[in-house]
Amino acid sequence: MEYRIPLYIIYGLVSELLFTAIADLINPNFLKSWNVFDPSPLPLPLKGGGIKGGGDPGRMRNPKAIGYSFLWMLPIYALLALIEPAHELMKNFPIFIRGFIYVLALWSVEYISGALIKKISGRCPWDYSASRWNLSGFIRLDFLPVWFVFVLTAEWLSGKFILLTPAIQQVFG
Question: What is the pLDDT of residues 117-161, one digit of tens each?
Fold first, then answer.
């Protein structure tokens, strides 16, 4: 499994970058809850150039669709490798049951890691307090469908990663 941990980290990071880029493209205020930007109101572009309303000029709708993540996420995404033994235990469960159990496990990790990061650094990189569906600012219940797809995709990828293991071991030995 240790040879596959970097693959799970890459999967987690790429997923997060895509999700945040698409979400921020759709809603320019989305990443404000992630403590990525200054919380001041969105600026309005003026005809002759310049910004009205103050705030971070980079927060206007940006067609570049830039995604974000945090270094804190590397060890958190490494934990995705635990999906392998979990899948082995639950392989006979219906897909919806497995998905729900995975999401509950993911939310547990998200909550605990968010609380620990906040305790260590004074601030959690993701702060969902502005969402009415949050738990202590660390979890958003309305992200259930996103997490459901994420964990079931991780489960599917785990089978592919296991098949790649001999080649990875041969290269990195």
Answer: 999 988 888 888 888 899 999 999 999 999 999 999 999 999 999
What is the domain extent for residue 15?
A: 5-24+70-172
Span 65-69, average pLDDT: 79
Q: Where does the pLDDT of residue 33 fall: very low under 50, low under 70, confident under 90, or very high at 90 and above?
A: low
Can you tell me the distance from the alpha carbon of 139 to that of 103, in angstroms, rounded to the nearest whole number? 11
Number of separate domains in the chain: 1
Inside any domain, residue 35 = no
Helix or strand (DSSP H, E) at 140:
strand 139-140
- The verdict on residue 62 lying in a domain is no
Question: Is residue 33, in this structure, part of any structural domain at all?
Answer: no
> Please, what is the Cα angle at 99 between 155 and 154, to 5 degrees?
20
Residue 131 maps to a domain: yes
> What are residue 33's phi and psi, to 5 degrees?
-75, -10
Supply the pTM of this predicted model.
Answer: 0.79
